[in-house]
């Protein structure tokens, strides 16, 4: 697992680790069942305090992405989402293309369509 | 073991001093025994022995004992190891005790061994010198002269740098010795006379007869203990 | 016991000069703590007082619950000085044999493993070792005793980058075994790398203390751009540590109340509002400058 850290960013190192492991899982570099390095091993490899790795693993466990098995290491729990980022965008762009064509055929101008979308998103966010 | 470290750091200096003293003592005995004499008799060696003990051995041993007192934490600070030594779970007092005891034993040995060499040299050269006398004199020198050792010990705790301590130590030893020889009112404190009181030494045979007084030696020894305790206190309280 | 080292109002005077003026700090157990400060800020003085190499003028200092100077406590700690000097006349083997008996928690397996890892020649005299080798030897002598607390004074001083990395890795290893590491450094990068807790001092006093993550999240820099910047006084308030004006930009270092301060942007008609995280170097320099301004 390739993790590159920048300790002089104002971003806590443990969050950088969390982000990079999360990203690895999202792009499929780590899949469900893969074993993560032991806390001690990762700390030595990255040359960071073991407490930092503990925090990162705890956070990932909280997010449900990994599971720590006492004495037996850490394992990736949830694999990548059903769709990879690339696939998601590809699917979405197909939906958008279709929708735009449909709205135009109904007779809406692009501005009117845009306003409809904005209203829908605001309402969506408000009800969430 | 801490005591082995202390011994190791001082042994070559001790061996060198011992060797030098043996050379000095041998030379002195021969010189005194044979100087201007046509026929050398046994009593010449008695005289030579006594003169050596009062003269060459006293003088050179006095400075040597002072040198054996040098060293310690200030020297370690100069070479950079004092932090390591003091970070070990050994108290300053224990270190000081080891150093002062080893130095004192070395000083005593440096008095006894050359003193005992005198009978050997005399015998080898066809004369004689009673071993009992030599041993007694060596012992008295060692105990009485411990004062010089403790001057060195104290100087090493007060002054950083071997040269500074040695210089001051030499000056003090010199001052003690000479002032008690020259200044009338101090003459009774003369260490040389305390160690080898001429009144119990037979003028013709140069051998000891009668009882040797020990109070002079005892006073000097007590004084050396006082200086040593002072050195210990300085060591215990100092910043390094 | 949560704190392995505690000082309270620690003061040290050399003649007329105060090397430490009321230093109060706590080194928490189980962490890697960076003791950050400029040259001459009092780091080495503090460490020497903890080891009882020098005596404090006033205040208190304790290690593992006992007053600094306790001989028994020194059996449970390790120390590596800046110079990393050891007895030059001893060989590697001899100094290991000399040191071993002092520490009941010494482990022979650690000694052999480190001897092999560090490739230390047993029969070579210390005087013939390079500084890098001496550092490794010093580490071996300390790590083999598995101390509860390991104190290091400028551990990477005089070492090349490879040796530094190796040393930091060994410290991390030891921390994973439960040793609390307390190391002084004037290099921010090093502290940011392996420490999870920092104590920064300047002129013998603590200017910053806390877990690095806490400090990283607590301090933020808020940059507001104005056509016509208001006077800096407009921004004085709770949480504002420093306000700097650079042309049209007003940059605020905030230690709290970030949301309220950020909200001042639109209220005062800022053209743009930007919140950035603050690294330790920037934070440390700001605190030192602040100290200079106040003194």
Question: What does this entry look like structurally?
Answer:
The complex is a heterotrimer of chains A (128), B (240) and C (295). Chain A is mostly helical and 128 residues long. Chain A is elongated. Chain A is built from 5 helices and 3 strands. In chain A, strands 1-3-2 form a 3-stranded antiparallel sheet, with helices on one face. Helices cover 59% and strands 8% of the residues of chain A. Chain B is mainly alpha-helical. In chain B, 76% of the residues lie in helices and 0% in strands. Chain B contains 10 helices and no strands. The radius of gyration of chain B is 19 Å and the shape is elongated. The two termini of chain B are 22 Å apart. Chain C is α/β, with parallel strands linked by helices and 295 residues long. Helix content of chain C is 32%, strand content 31%. Chain C is built from 9 helices and 14 strands. Chain C is elongated. Chains in contact: A-C, B-C. Chains A and C meet through helix 2 and helix 3 of A and helix 5, helix 6 and helix 7 of C.
List the helices and strands and how they pair.
The complex is a heterotrimer of chains A (128), B (240) and C (295).
Chain A: H1 13-26, E1 35-36, H2 39-46, H3 50-62, E2 66-69, E3 73-76, H4 85-106, H5 110-127
Antiparallel strand pairs in A: 1-3, 2-3
Helix pairs in contact in A: 1-3, 2-3
Chain B: H1 2-34, H2 42-68, H3 73-79, H4 82-87, H5 92-124, H6 131-144, H7 146-158, H8 162-182, H9 191-195, H10 215-237
Helix pairs in contact in B: 1-2, 1-5, 2-5, 2-7, 2-8, 5-6, 5-10, 6-10, 7-8, 7-10
Chain C: E1 3-14, E2 17-28, E3 32-37, H1 43-50, E4 58-63, E5 66-67, E6 77-80, H2 92-99, H3 108-118, H4 131-143, E7 149-153, H5 161-176, E8 180-185, H6 188-194, E9 197-202, E10 205-211, H7 212-218, E11 220-225, E12 240-246, E13 249-254, H8 258-267, E14 272-277, H9 280-294
Parallel strand pairs in C: 3-8, 3-9, 6-7, 7-8
Antiparallel strand pairs in C: 1-2, 1-4, 4-5, 9-10, 11-13, 11-14, 12-13
